[in-house]
Amino acid sequence: MALLNFRKKDTVQPAGVNPYLEAFLQGYSIEVMPRTAEKVPDFKDLLPTGTRVYIAHIEGTPIEDMVATAAHLARDGYPVMPHFPARIIKDQATLENWIAMYQGEAGVDQALLLAGGVAQPHGDFDSSIALLETGAFDRAGFTRLHVAGHPEGNRDIDPSGGTLNVDAALRWKQKFSETTDAQMALATQFAFEARPLIEWADSLKAAGITLPIHIGIAGPAKLQTMIKFAVACGVGPSLKVLQKRARDVTKLLLPFEPTEVLTELAAHKAATPDSNIERVHFFPLGGITANANWAIEHGGASAVPASHV
């Protein structure tokens, strides 16, 4: 079986690596923005060739910048998955133009579809479902489509709390996944506790939602930075993990790392290989370099079968 290509220095397994964590990190993905990607001299020094790189599309970012970042990463050997935030896409013509630009300049055939962070739609679309209903991605031959998962709920979708609307949307997406030729998966918001993530994943499977889950994990960052992003992104009950740490003044200046949550998730995956938790998606809140180096130190630079990409 063919293996992905790595620089020689990246193929040495770090001493003391947890084998379950190493296995769980294989095929991880990571998220960048054009302005943060510009600060990385050479992604090949940090990421295994073949690592899926999401490109976050923040409101106000010109599509030309998004496409240029995608083209750069694609040239360096990375499958690129740009965000398509429904609420900032004006109409179907704009959607199809974005798809054509990504495919023409960077050969993109993967996308993360989500509503986006703005309260009011700028045009015709208000959700990832609305984007999927256009059929534009199927017509363009996209091979992989990811949609958002919300282990701790989402008050933008269910303003009164609970998961009624989120669950209904997941049932719709499960049915859609059975009709499209594209592979689909859930990419989740980041959280800081393993047990609730496992229970959420198990509950989806019990409800007949079998989409693979790519668990969102915040990469290493200063505790203050982590709390700021967690609050801004609407992280739910697992925020208490950070709040508890913040009460310990000896840890305030130390970076918060995802070692504990990922070690527990990795042990669960090893014990339950048929779990719908498939792999890890990193949000590099403390920087791409810090996140990539953490992954390397914990075995995330090992070669992955090409079929896993």
TrEMBL record:
InterPro entries: FAD-linked_oxidoreductase-like. Gene3D superfamilies: 3.20.20.220. SUPFAM superfamilies: FAD-linked oxidoreductase. Keywords: Oxidoreductase. One of its GO terms (molecular function) is oxidoreductase activity. It comes from the Bacteria. This is 5,10-methylenetetrahydrofolate reductase.
